[in-house]
Amino acid sequence: MKIGFIGLGSLGSAIAGRLASCGHELLVWNRTREKAEASGFPVADSPADLVSRSEVVCLCLFDSTAVRDVLSREDGICSVDLSGKVVVDFTTNHYKEVTSFYDLCRARGGEYLESPVLGSVVPASKGELTVVVSGNEDAFKRVEAPLLSCIGRHIFYLGEPGLASKMKVVNNLTLGVFMAAIAEALAVGEAAGISRQTVLDILSVGGGESLVLRAKKDRLVKEDFSPHFSNALIYKDLHCLEDLAYELKKSVPTAAAAKELFAQTFTRGCAHEDFCAVWKVVR
Fold first, then answer.
1. Sequence-ordered list of residues with C-beta below 8 angstroms from that of 144, at least 6 positions apart, any chain
2. Is the full-model pTM beyond 0.90?
3. Superfamily of chain region 2-161
4. Would you list the DSSP string of 80-118?
5. Catalytic, out of 166, 168, 217, 236
6. Which residue positions are annotated as catalytic (predicted)?
7. Residue 168 is among the residues annotated as catalytic for this protein
């Protein structure tokens, strides 16, 4: 399959690499051209150029503002005929913003699939993400086996526009809260005179045992905060979750506390480090 890929951050690069390893032919575009050229894939001159040379277009961007720009700019995806094309968006979008992207693509003859992923760089490189999808069922079936199955061990089709984005931030409520709790427990354990390695070893077979701790344990020991999923991203996602909770009149006190903790990473200068670096804030 000829796939156009836009967005080569940490997660996007891992997904693109995985798709290429599955035999797909990739053409890429990134707002920073140097990053696109460094990927080793052929580089399109613009999103419009990329669309014209691809069967399916994948997006993996920071937020809905970036997605809207790529779709609507003068040389954007929706500046050309999209007949027969499917836009698969792996971005974690705001649940209100995302519904308009369907209309933008359909107005040009294409289909848009809202397809946020659960998991980060390592599972992406192994094809072990979880993919949550909303959108047209025929478009979903068209890309499920050849594309989504390459990157996802678990694939959930929710259908109704907006539901996939809502589910993604519901998932990230637990992700952010778990990471904040692990960081706080580690900081308290160290302050009590227990070595970092020992605290993490015991948490990993005790109350802290989780996918989050398994993914971040070695990185915390080594103080490796190179970004797989940044503090800025989890902060953005928890903000979207709070918007959803406000609309639903639901209280989310643990998510709110975690969000404010991640907010401190901006003033501490580590917002763009991996979200396990929140440990530096509570330490």
1. 155
2. yes
3. NAD(P)-binding Rossmann-like Domain (3.40.50.720)
4. S--TT-EEEE-S---TTTTHHHHHHHHTTT-EEEE--EE
5. 168
6. 168
7. yes
